[in-house]
Structure formats: structure tokens, C-alpha cells
Amino acid sequence: MFKGSMVALVTPMQEDGSIDKKALQALVEWHIQSKTSAIVAVGSTGESATLDPDEQLEVISLVIKQAAGRVPVIAGTGSNSTRSTLKLTENAKRAGADACLIVTPYYNKPTQNGLYHHYKVIAETVDLPIILYNVPGRTGCDMQAETVERLAKIKSIVGIKEATGKVDRAQEILARCGSSFGIYSGDDATGLDLLLHGAHGVISVTANVAPLKMAEMCEAVLQGDKILAEKINAELMLLHKRLFVESNPIPVKWVLHNMGKIPPGIRLPLLPLDNRYHQEVKEAMQNAGVN
User: Fold this and answer.
1) Which residues contact 63 (CB under 8 A, 6 or more apart)?
2) What is the pLDDT along the chain (291 residues), one digit of tens a residue?
3) Which pTM was predicted?
4) What residues are labeled active site?
5) Which CATH class is domain 4-223?
6) Which residues of 171-188 are buried (b: 16+ CB within 10 A; e: fewer)?
7) Where are the domains of the chain?
């Protein structure tokens, strides 16, 4: 089972939108040195929606090569088409991914039974561990706990990234699926709460800019040190919140650029962080000791 702080990695880009491979390799190295438990490549934060399939595979392959088995690499392979998701997942397996993260199909608004069959087909076709990804605020589709319970009975479906921010939802999934089924927070602001209620880790945006602190916070919970975990989380809380003053990954890419980690590029229809938010994001950086 995957545990701890797992970064939802950005995809570094030049101002023209081209992928910066050297910056990507450097980010992977930084995360490994900062005790990040796993790297999620080409998820929502990695701008999967605006990367074409060849680019997605290129980024995933590059992250896997750079990680070189030192940390697990989880590939984002979801789309709103079951056929496309199958192809992306097959590509990730061939590239050597340790697991895949598959978001609920967006825009289509499938039924709960449709969701079940979508994931079932992928699980039965590609022999790779699958982490479900529920983020209704982005997809317009909310996978219910009953559906997760059905899917958890399929051997290769090993966990869920639950990004509703609802602690009671995670608790219900845990009660239905048992502690052997991985539950991962997809909402940094409530991540500690979910961990304290039995979740196994956080797939984190904040970890992009404060990887060591996120790793230490998650490890403290897993070791039973609630006081230390709460202390670290309090230092990060303003950052958790202000990395979402505009749509993710706009703020986090702006922070990483200010840290000198990546160029300023981001792809339309997203634009760089609006000037009116610069000061409050800088304040959150200072609060968290990020520079």
C-alpha cells in the first residue's frame, strides 16, 4: 500500500507552453531528497487536461526514468472516455508506472453504475494497481461510497484519492472497505483531519513547494505523534488555502517559479497568477518557511 506524502507533481513549462524536461528531472530529484513517498505524474496539477497523449506518456516516462525505482511513480491516466483511459493506462504500464490514478470521467456525468463499469473494464484489461480519484468540484461527477465499496472488491483497485474535503465521506469509505483499502486525501486543507480518521496519505499540491514538511507531517501521523503533526500542519495551513486562490495549478506554479524551481509557463486556458493575489500567496510562503 502507498502511504505518506505523495506529490501531485506540476509539469514545468517554458513561457511558450513547451515542457521543460530538465526542470522536471530536477523536481523529481528534489522530491526524492525531501522524503516524498510517491510521485503522481500528469494528474490534475500536472495539467493533464491540456497535454496530448504523447506528451503525457513523455512526462510519465521521464519521471519514471529519473525516479529510477527510488520512489513509486503513480501515473495519471484518467479521461472522460473509457477507450482513451484504457490506452493511457496501457501506455503507463509499458513505461513502468507502479500504479495509475484514474479520475472519474468528467463532463459526461455517468451514473454510479456507469462509473463501476468504467473502472471495472480498465481493471480487467490492464494489470496495474488502480487508485480511484473522486474530485466532483472539477468533474461534475461524485463517486458515492457504495460505488467505491463495489469497486474495492476488484483486486487491482487498491485505493481512492478522495478530494471532496469531507471527512465523513472518507470515514464511510473506510468503514465499508476496511483498512487494507488505501484512502488518500486530495484536499490539503483537510488532509490532516482525514489522516487522523484513518486515511493512509495525502496526494498533495502543497507538497510541490513544501515537500519535506508535508512528508514530516504525514510521517508524524503514521507514527502516532498527533501533536507534531498538528504543529507542522498549522505552519502549512495558510499555504494549503492560498494555493487555491485561483484554479490549481496556477498558484503553485507561480510559487515554484518564485522559488527558482521552474520557468513561468502554464497552458491556456489557464494564465499565470493574477497580480492581485501575489502578496497574499507570498505571505503564505513566508508563514510556511518556503522561499
Assistant:
1) 9, 24, 28, 39, 41, 73
2) 799 999 999 999 999 999 999 999 999 999 999 999 999 999 999 999 999 999 999 999 999 999 999 999 999 999 999 999 999 999 999 999 999 999 999 999 999 999 999 999 999 999 999 999 999 999 999 999 999 999 999 999 999 999 998 889 999 999 999 999 999 999 999 999 999 999 999 999 999 999 999 999 999 999 999 999 999 999 999 999 999 999 999 999 999 999 999 999 999 999 999 999 999 999 999 999 998
3) 0.96
4) 133, 161
5) alpha beta
6) bbbbeebeeebbbbbbbb
7) 4-223
